[in-house]
TrEMBL record:
Stretches the record annotates as Disordered: 445-478
GO molecular-function terms, A-Z: serine-type endopeptidase activity
Active site: 203, 240, 408
Name of the protein in question: S8 family serine protease
Organism expressing this protein natively: Natronomonas pharaonis (strain ATCC 35678 / DSM 2160 / CIP 103997 / JCM 8858 / NBRC 14720 / NCIMB 2260 / Gabara) (Halobacterium pharaonis)
PANTHER family found in the cross-reference section: CEREVISIN-RELATED, PEPTIDASE S8
Broad class of enzyme this protein falls into: hydrolase
Keyword terms, alphabetized: Hydrolase, Protease, Serine protease
Length: 575
């Protein structure tokens, strides 16, 4: 039976030299293998003389406390557990190690099924847990507006045509998507636009010569299908990666975090192999990326990604991934891996869910593996959040601008906001904390959780949740003119126009503001509010000012009043 013989041969190559050579493998005597063999690998072994596969070993550090030590610990442990297998491969020309990985404890191999005597006994390596194909994932973008109601979007931005670079500043200050998630307000609140944060985009490449895109030093890496590094200059033959990179960190109104350090790991134009994506994620983690932005995905419940995410997060890198473009009741991996920040898409203006955006309830029991962490909930929702993904305007590979659709376009909005949080937080945020903040500060669109997750990202609210308290500004400081005089009437006007800008209870000092701050110096104290309140309930503010100007001794600093117009002076500190 040729098919059965060929599969047995593959098992010999992967697991079996223990029985063949009378030795112990991985700490246990060779025996009949008892592990999962992916169907794609089995099928390839039945039909081809050369078989490519991923051999997985016991989890490197994802599910234990050693993960906190970061990449160095993972790499050491991976090398240790892979050593026996690698030695065997090096000694046998019928099996070649294409690449060793450490973010996941795995090796990529190529097997010549004609080079080994398949009649020998089949053994196994104790540390090997699974063999699967070097499967592929694809980008989550669409080139047209199929199924999208653009009526709620800005009509001026409904074209799908590519635009030259010169047109952006003449059309808008910011893209509609950036405004929809309150990014300009977030910049003002944070006092930065992502300074110091690092975002690694893993995509089709980037036009680093685009006038609005700047890569960080050593911010480019190119990987072949086997995950090996290619020596190349930044480029993008598809445009997807440049568009995504522009939304993350582009300048000139297209990027959420234009001052963040941008890294780009190039995958394939259509997506990525398991090896490519793993190698690129390792590169991002080693470069201390705060955020890893992945606008791609494959079959849902692909448990082979769990270790990637656990280890990346343990190293401090938040993984952000697109939910998919297959509509309600669906999701993709790695977005459906619980710790990931999974992102769905809204219309351009953020007011409605993009119809093709994926979303569903995920049950822990659906994962076909025993290695799902016990900390995962029994059920959860994909996506976690949504962001603009329809008709998104960003950089094009030819140096201009273009519009694209898909959850691929929503992800960089979320990745950029995560970068703003990393740049702003008063103390370092873990990936889990960042994910929680983004979910807890969303705007509710009134859609089911399986469509909107927690809601639409609100960058300003998210930044406000992690930013250190602002240094209070005294009313006196705010209303003091260059010549030292006090613009009292401006303060009164401001209060009358926006009562919410002032909160009672704060204290100021000096100059005309003492009128309100200290009526209690009188022998029989009467609050300024009571003293200057007319019969009709209005406040005689100008009488108070006149009294102060005529008799400064009538007021002593340090006392406190409350209510009505006097709050202008008593509490500018919330502004």
């Amino acid at each position: 039976m040729p098919d059965e013989i060929t599969l047995r041969l593959l098992l010999v190559l992967i697991f079996g030299f223990g029985a063949c050579f009378g030795i112990t493998v991985g700490g246990a005597a060779a025996s009949e293998p008892d592990l999962e063999i992916g169907p794609e690998v089995a099928e390839e072994a039945e039909t081809n003389e050369t078989v490519t596969a991923i051999v997985r070993f016991e989890a490197s550090a994802a599910l234990d406390t050693e993960a906190k030590a970061g990449p160095a610990t993972m790499e050491t442990r991976a090398n240790d557990t892979q050593a026996a297998f690698v030695d065997f491969a090096n000694d046998h020309p019928g099996i070649a190690i294409e690449r060793q990985f450490w973010l996941v404890n795995a090796v990529s191999i190529t097997v010549d099924t004609t080079a080994i005597d398949f009649e020998r006994s089949v053994g196994r390596f104790e540390a090997v847990s699974e063999v699967h194909a070097d499967f592929e994932v694809e980008h989550h973008s669409a080139s047209t507006a199929d199924g999208v109601d653009l009526a709620a979007s800005d009509p001026a931005q409904s074209s799908a045509a590519t635009e030259p670079a010169a047109q952006l500043t003449s059309q808008e200050a910011y893209t509609t998507g950036i405004e929809a998630i309150a990014v300009p307000e977030a910049w003002e609140r944070a006092g930065n636009r992502g300074d110091g944060a690092r975002v690694a985009v893993l995509d089709t490449g980037v036009n680093a010569s685009h006038p609005d895109i700047e890569l960080a030093p050593n911010g480019w890496a190119d990987f072949d299908l086997a995950g090996n590094r290619i020596d190349s200059e930044p480029h993008d033959g598809d445009g997807h990666g440049t568009h995504v990179s522009g939304t993350v960190a582009g300048d000139n109104g297209i990027g959420v975090a234009p001052d963040a350090e941008l890294f780009h790991g190039r995958l394939d134009d259509d997506g990525a192999t398991f090896s490519q994506l793993t190698a690129a994620m390792e590169w991002a983690v080693k470069h201390d990326a705060d955020v890893i932005s992945i606008s791609l995905g494959g079959d849902s419940r692909t448990h082979q990604y769990v270790e990637h995410i656990q280890n990346a997060h343990a190293s401090g890198s938040l993984v952000v991934s697109s939910a998919g473009n297959n509509g309600p009741g669906t999701s993709t991996s790695p977005a459906d891996v619980y710790p990931v920040l999974s992102v769905g898409a809204t219309s351009q203006d953020g007011e409605q869910i993009w119809p093709e955006s994926s979303g569903e309830q995920v049950f822990k029991s659906e994962w076909d593996t025993d290695e799902i962490p016990s900390t995962w909930p029994d059920e959860y929702v994909v996506p976690n959040v949504v962001a603009p993904g329809a008709d998104v305007r960003s950089a094009s590979a030819d140096g201009g601008y273009e519009r694209k659709f898909g959850t691929s376009m929503a992800v960089p909005h979320a990745s950029g906001v995560a970068a703003l949080l990393a740049a702003t937080a008063s103390e370092e945020l873990s990936p889990e904390a960042t994910r929680d903040v983004l979910a807890e500060t969303t705007d509710d669109l009134g859609e089911p959780a399986t469509r909107q997750g927690a809601g639409r990202i609100n960058a300003s609210a998210a930044v406000d949740a992690v930013a250190p308290p602002t240094e209070p500004e005294r009313a006196e400081d705010h209303y003091t003119r260059d010549d030292g005089s006090i613009a009292v009437f401006d303060a009164i006007d401001d209060f009358q126009n926006d009562r919410g800008a002032f909160a009672p209870g704060s204290t100021v000092e000096g100059s005309i503001f003492d009128v309100i701050n200290a009526w209690n110096s009188l022998d029989d104290p009467e609050t300024a509010v009571e003293y200057y309140t007319r019969d009709d309930g209005s406040i005689a503010v100008f009488d108070a000012i006149d009294d102060f100007q005529n008799d400064r001794g009538a007021f002593a600093p340090g006392s406190t009043v409350e209510g009505s117009i006097f709050d202008v002076i008593n509490a500018f500190q919330t502004s």
